[in-house]
Amino acid sequence: MDQLNLQNPLFATYVIAATLMILKAVSMSWLTVVRMMSARAGFRSPEDLKKTPLNPAPNPKQIEPDERVERIRRIHLNDLENLPFFLVAGFLYVLTQPSLLLAQALLYGYVISRFLHFFAYLTARTHDTRATLWTVGSLILIFMTCRTLIAAIGS
Known about the structure:
The protein is mainly alpha-helical. It has a single domain, classed as Membrane associated eicosanoid/glutathione metabolism-like domain (Four Helix Bundle (Hemerythrin (Met), subunit A), Up-down Bundle). Helix content is 72%, strand content 0%. It is built from four helices and no strands. The chain has helices spanning 9-39, 67-95, 100-122, 127-154. Helix 1 runs antiparallel to helix 2 (67-95), helix 1 runs parallel beside helix 3 (100-122) and helix 2 (67-95) packs parallel to helix 4 (127-154). The longest helix is centred in the N-terminal third of the chain and has 31 residues, at 9-39.
């Protein structure tokens, strides 16, 4: 287990990629709040219509869906559906001790595909564009997972 330290460039690559993905996912919650507050819409629960310092003039329309808020929620849900697999698959893949260059291409390739997917979703690009970017990340996960499985079976 001495390979699991930040002096190991392979593990450091994983840590950088994983950290970026975690920060991206967490930022979606903040972006949702910012959108809700700026639109004064997209609130979810009836109790959100109570008068508070942050909501001094409640309006029943505030709990109606707002596309700007819902778009961020869909992006966040997509992250929650995909990132746990990356975090686990990437960690297990690093344990197989692949070449640093290949690991960097795969791990950073996944990160880039997810950021591009976010941008495509945020700017309302076509499903084909989003699906292509999602597919890149998915194929990276499948590759890393299969290589990990092969390494585990062969050991």
